[in-house]
Amino acid sequence: MSIKVRFFARLREEAGIGEREIPFQPGMSLPEVWQRAGAKGELPEAVLIAVNMEYTRAAVTLKDGDEVAFFPSVTGG
Fold this sequence. Notes:
With 77 residues, this protein is α+β, with helices and mostly antiparallel strands.
């Protein structure tokens, strides 16, 4: 039982990995996934999150085999 976690752009550089599988545990939250995957610090509010290729901001009930992707927020002008 596992969850695939992916980091993109500068988050990949900061975490030192692009992709990792972590053990799935029922009731895991997105901040827990963030930390267990090797990201540093707490999950920033500005980070965009997709679960199974759909963006989410709400608390999500994760399940075995899900893919969670973390993207830096886009800024600029």
